[in-house]
Specification:
Length: 176
Amino acid sequence: MKKQKLITLKNFIFIVFIFFIAISFSIDYDLGENIGHHFKDYLLQMLIILPPIFILIGLFEVWVKKETIIKHLGEEAGFKSYVWVFILAAPMAGGLLPSFPIAYSLYRKGARLSVILVFLGAVGVGRIPMIFFESTFLGWKFSFIRIVASIPMVIIAGIALGKYLEKKQYKLPENQ
């Protein structure tokens, strides 16, 4: 019953948002029009990015065996697992959005929680497209220093948080 109420509340909020945008355009309310334009742009961007991401995640689910993930990212993998997730994260496009389903797939296939957390951090700081974009504005020297400083911090934070969560016996929720 509670879940049904939450869905209804979410739908109500979305309907109010769309109504606000429509009213804003009809009365020339600049702030609402601006929000509407940004919403449209973001929605179109997601509609372009998400289908290829879901196809690639589906292929990843089918093609990559659980034994491979356990061998390279599981409990016995050691420090090289962190190198592997940085390699996996480096070519990703689309920001953090596609990394969450991939992280969940890695977790379901046997990757350690600390490796998953490092993967998410690596996507946030070490994506090659982001580094190229950043370096055009801030310079290669800044980008290099940021990467060199960020990589150890991401690994340390991921390991620390992973150990803490494992000590608390945290498990990611299963699909329902």
